[in-house]
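To close the chapter, one final illustration. This time we ask the reader to focus less on the individual chains and more on the assembly as a whole: which components sit near each other, and how the overall shape emerges from the parts.
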Amino acid sequence: MNEATEERSWTTRRDKKAKKILQVSQLAVDKILPSEKMVEALEMLISPGDRVVLEGDNQKQASFLSHVLTQVDPQKVYKLHMIMSSISRPEHLDIFEYGIAEKIDFAYAGPQSLRVAQMLEDRKLKMGEIHTYLELFGRLFIDLIPNVALIAADQADVYGNLYTGANTEETPTIVEATAFKDGIVIAQVNELVDELPRVDIPGSWIDFVVVADKPYQLEPLFTRDPRHITDLQVLMAMMTIRGVYERHQVQSLNHGIGYNTAAIELLLPTYGESLGLKGKICKHWALNPHPTLIPAIESGWVESIHCFGGEVGMEQYVAARPDVFFTGRDGSLRSNRAMSQVAGQYAVDLFVGSTLQMDRDGNSSTVTSGRLAGFGGAPNMGHDPRGRRHSTPAWLDMRTSNDELARGRKLVVQMVETFQKGNEPVFVESMDAVKVGLDANLATAPMMIYGDDVTHVVTEEGIAYLYKSDSVEERRQALSAVAGVTPIGLQHDTKQTAALREKGLIAFPEDLGVNRTEAKRSLLAAKSVEEIVDWSKALYNPPASFRSW
Amino acid sequence: MNEATEERSWTTRRDKKAKKILQVSQLAVDKILPSEKMVEALEMLISPGDRVVLEGDNQKQASFLSHVLTQVDPQKVYKLHMIMSSISRPEHLDIFEYGIAEKIDFAYAGPQSLRVAQMLEDRKLKMGEIHTYLELFGRLFIDLIPNVALIAADQADVYGNLYTGANTEETPTIVEATAFKDGIVIAQVNELVDELPRVDIPGSWIDFVVVADKPYQLEPLFTRDPRHITDLQVLMAMMTIRGVYERHQVQSLNHGIGYNTAAIELLLPTYGESLGLKGKICKHWALNPHPTLIPAIESGWVESIHCFGGEVGMEQYVAARPDVFFTGRDGSLRSNRAMSQVAGQYAVDLFVGSTLQMDRDGNSSTVTSGRLAGFGGAPNMGHDPRGRRHSTPAWLDMRTSNDELARGRKLVVQMVETFQKGNEPVFVESMDAVKVGLDANLATAPMMIYGDDVTHVVTEEGIAYLYKSDSVEERRQALSAVAGVTPIGLQHDTKQTAALREKGLIAFPEDLGVNRTEAKRSLLAAKSVEEIVDWSKALYNPPASFRSW
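The assembled structure is written out below.
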């Protein structure tokens, strides 16, 4: 215990915050900052080099605050280390062009993936790491503790209590990491009210509130129009229902975005019903409120759904179905990305994903040339969580040994057509992601799902039951057997087909009792958005872009 | 869409809740229930067969509510499906004896593990599943959605807003899963106040509050008296610092409970300092506020600590060190088990555990004959999280191949002396857990940490670098080389020792530059609780049972 120890301050973060709050309080009335003073306020509240979380979710965007941030003086605010779940808006990258921000840690960059890659090449952006959502949230409490959080909510009261309504997403997680480490939390809200419908985040966690010039940006990312589902996708969905869900008794699951999984959802009340599977499979879900799940819900298939976020147009429907969805006292959806990711990782039987490229070992990535898209939540759910200790019938059904320590595993299913649109093969010798990783100087190749975590691959040709394979060679054979006329499919030694079928390593539609000629769009419970609205008893209110009648 | 669909109610949970709340409101003043009416209230609020979460954490116990629950009439309240993180108190099992509860899902049963096993054998208890904390939390949102939550907090106001103070633990997670699915949340509090120091849980999530007859039970589980640390543990700690932390540049980590890890914590400011490692290793932590970490904190080793829960006696010290700990506006600790488990799984370089038994493949378990202890949080942190996509130097250092898709892995270290107290070997041919699992009719053997997730095993003999092994055989050789004169150690072919050392698969103290003769208790920064108090400048206030001066 030397002298230096004696003199050290242990409240540097708190003192720095107190000083800033005092300075900004001249602009504010209690916690409320006027929108026209926000540039000035941010210049006072954010120091050079600060770690700033900008929300930046999969759906909800703190769009007003991101715009304000582009307007601060780069002589005053610079070298920011940005943390964003999702790089979604042009401003999210403009701040790097303007010299305000320097480094980025993120999880997903879908709409901006091309520009991220370009800016990295041009050295306008210093790359931190690419994460899944959950590991990024974890780091907010470990080595990426924020100095400032810029977040979005529906409503606030004068005490700073927040109502996040149907689109809670990551707001509570970001706020907790910031507020409880003497960081500064600034919330943009759509409106200020006297009384909130419910409190999602306590006012004592929030420093400042600003009413935005317009409501925060919100995208309908999980709406799929059934008109675009093809017969081939219906075939693959039928195979998945019979060959995976029924066979392994899958009771809890996650579906991502896509027409393949939308087809499954729309086949449950028709094809699934005809197989007598209601009440036996697909009862508990971790997913956003997909409109295509409405017919299955209305038909009594679905017991519960926990949501990562909301979905535009589903507000009224969700509020009318509280037995199924998690809702608050005000009646609206309560979503929570962190807890839904935890549930989607550890508490469900199955994850279904899709991909743009897959190699002969079943490794897959949606990263393609020149695009650094990130991972989002898929890898977190699309792997075998080795920390899991509880069992379910489906999980146990994955055991392939009689060893006394044998355990089950999570079902990780990839559904892909062998060719993408534009006739690009999905099954390839080498994925673009490997080159992208090298070009971007990443420490590891940006893989979405690793092959050794994949239990099943479903294509229009059939299903490969990869979890049953005894060797790398057998695994490759099974995969190539369903890879069609792609470079990987053409490597298949057809003499092995019978043996692989015999051993149950692959199954074709006829092996599963699926009749190819029955695989028609007419089997879908709803063939258009209009029919989904009908199923919902007009409670679903699709966004304008999905209205065509 | 048939007639049955038309007639279905979608608000059964909400309606049931409204009816119960109305009935109980005759007993309550606003949200406040009188403590002497609680038996009656629980009989109204809990229906037969309900899923009830009873808090039941690692440290904090809703002790008043658990006592009340034993007093309800089993003619009125029966067949409850209990969900508890931790089975800690006699009442937690009494309710099964009394015919009130029937089935249990849990994560940990330390103090009650013997009785759990006995009641299972006597068929007085129906076993659900044994979980890690995080997967149990996940299931609360999927297929174990609660009807009722019985929780504990420090203070409430009349609106039901809760202050959980330093021991937040799982309260927010349990409440969220219950409140947002029309379940009933009842909080016992130590006191009712006009104004809370801070709001940890909004009142709109809470249905009823009752002031308990005495403060909730809270155990000092993470306090280790340095007087009990042996020279052998000092030796193992020195090896771990040099051979694991320094070698792999471990910057973020979790330590569990135990004298081995306490020794590491107390060597950082002495031995670690002499190696020039300050600022290079052990900067970010996910762990409870261990008193034995105080000297390292005071010496400037520790940048941040996020906590699962609190620790009795550490309140004032934590409040005085907000640069290090997560604290609220009131100054006290903010813990959160769910988020700290997420961080401990995904965002740290290393986990260190210990065990009672380990087999030749490195599998380990703390379950021993007749005791069904459960897993707690260890398996969640003690595995390689395959959903992780970001890299750190330590993580990358685990790569053993040049494959273009090679990735790093988490460091999972087991520190064990080759023999337990009482001369029982730790390294054994077959673990008791296998037999316990069979006897209890569990679907899989209750393993704590699986061998293929373990990267390093440290014993008093040396370190086995298991992650470097090319084959099962080589792995077994490396492990047996450090297993002393146990049944597994005696299988070691000493002719292989030189080759294993050469290849870096094992290291003895001399290979690590650790001098056995220097491994003395005198190296510890604090040799007693009293000295820890001195380091803390009297801010640490140890519980009476740890005061001996």
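The longest strand of chain A covers residues 148-156. Chain A touches chain B through 101 residues (CB under 8 Å). With these observations in hand, you are ready for the problems at the end of the chapter.
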